[in-house]
Automatic annotation (TrEMBL):
One of its GO terms (cellular component) is plasma membrane. The keyword Hydrolase applies. Residues 3-66 form the HMA domain. This is P-type Cu(+) transporter. Its main location: membrane. Pfam families: E1-E2_ATPase, HMA. It comes from Nitrincola nitratireducens. Belongs to the cation transport ATPase (P-type) (TC 3.A.3) family. Type IB subfamily. It is found in: Cell membrane. InterPro entries: ATPase_P-typ_transduc_dom_A_sf, ATPase_P-type_domA, Heavy-metal-associated_CS, HMA_dom, HMA_dom_sf, P_typ_ATPase. GO terms for molecular function: ATP binding; ATP hydrolysis activity; copper ion binding; P-type divalent copper transporter activity; P-type monovalent copper transporter activity. It catalyses: Cu(+)(in) + ATP + H2O = Cu(+)(out) + ADP + phosphate + H(+). One of its GO terms (biological process) is copper ion export. Its EC number is 7.2.2.8.
Length: 378
């Protein structure tokens, strides 16, 4: 039987990651359609594939996934997002505190030349390395994971760029004589600045993602966490909505929100349905009338019979439609995803070709100039 499964994703930071996740899920037997949303880091899968198989496929692609269900919902996910945002902020501040002073001192000429203070530059290199491990370690882990799974992502470019800058600079500090004097430069500030700015971009992106999800959160807050279940002996007890079943009898007191879809079984009241219809005036409800989740019982204490629970309620369908609207991609968005799949490899190839041409015919100084007389015989 076909079903829809929502998965919360981790480790997905660019459009190239979207393609990798989509390809991994589409290869799972039983999957009919896949929609991966980079904005809220989620995937929606339709088909009869087991959830464990979907999670395993994403894990095999180098990412992490958690099924969205009663145990792990939007509230838990928002808490994780808040923790993630605080962690990125700390990484950003550390990287910028290391990178900005270096950049300013180099621009104003307050740092000595490499040959004049190699010990100082070695210390700067160690501080930059510590920053790269703390603030940029996740980029290198992501790049290594992508390499193991034979694809390239944004992490690949960041790791290559910052890693190359640090390695070249450290080589100049330890062994400067391997290049001409004109090529003896250090780029520690570039590594720090790149990591700091990319992390800053992720902070802004995470905030924007939270703002974009406000509509969904506002809708979800319309539904209470628990309902008052009337037992067969007449006693009443609070019950989580996930534990309710159709035909259960519930008590809804004045001022409370209707927890699930159902029909009025006993009593009469007025209900505010403005969240559904936009109509500001309350509607009178009598026995047998339909009640919708998220609406407000205004006057009488009533009993209602459950008819729909979980994803079948009207409110849940509205939330799902909002999610689908956010996840839908225009044609230009799909084109951007297709380009992103090859963007990183193309950039790397262009960089290698540029370096090779510079080595062959570029102006002095060339990094490998001491080997120039030997290159035709290679």
């Amino acid at each position: 039987m076909s079903q829809k499964t929502r998965l919360a994703l981790r480790g997905m930071r660019c459009a190239a990651c979207v393609g990798s996740v989509e390809d991994a899920l589409k290869n799972v037997t039983g999957v009919q359609s896949v929609s991966v949303n980079l904005g809220d880091r989620s995937a929606s899968v339709e088909g009869d594939a087991p959830v464990d198989a979907l999670v395993a496929a994403i894990d095999e692609a180098g990412f992490k996934a958690t099924p969205m269900n009663a145990e792990y919902g939007e509230a838990e996910r928002q808490a994780e997002e808040a923790q993630h945002l605080q962690a990125i902020k700390r990484r950003t501040w550390v990287a910028l505190l290391v990178g900005i002073p270096q950049m300013l001192f180099m621009m104003t000429g307050h740092l000595p030349m490499l040959d004049e203070a190699r010990l100082l530059w070695a210390l700067i290199g160690l501080v930059t390395l510590a920053m790269m491990i703390y603030s940029g370690g996740h980029f290198f882990v992501g790049a290594w994971t992508a390499l193991k799974h034979r694809h390239a992502t944004m992490d690949t470019l960041i790791a290559l760029g910052t890693g190359s800058a640090w390695l070249y600079s450290t080589l100049m500090v330890i062994w400067p004589d391997i290049v001409p004097a004109e090529g003896r430069h250090v780029y520690y500030e570039a590594a720090a600045f790149i990591i700091g700015l990319v992390n800053l971009g992720q902070v802004l992106e995470t905030r924007a993602r939270g703002q974009a999800s406000q509509a969904i959160r506002a809708l979800m807050q319309l539904q209470p966490d628990t309902a008052t279940l009337i037992l067969s002996n007449g006693d009443e007890k609070p019950m989580r909505l996930a534990s309710l079943q159709t035909s259960d009898l519930l008590r809804v007191k004045p001022g409370e929100r209707i927890p699930v879809d159902g029909v009025l079984a006993e009593g009469d009241t007025q209900v505010d349905e403005s969240m559904l219809t936009g109509e500001p005036l309350p509607l009178r409800k009598a026995k047998g009338d339909v009640l919708s989740a998220g609406t407000v019982n205004l006057s009488g204490s009533i009993k209602m019979r459950v008819r729909k629970v979980g994803e079948e309620t009207t409110l849940a369908r509205i939330i799902e439609q909002v999610r689908q609207a956010q996840a839908q991609k225009p044609a230009i968005g799909r084109l951007a995803d297709d380009i992103s799949r090859v963007f990183v490899p193309v950039v790397i190839v262009i960089a290698l070709i540029t370096a090779f041409i510079w080595w062959l015919v570029g102006p002095e100084p060339r990094v490998l100039m001491p080997l120039q007389p030997q290159w035709p015989s290679l």
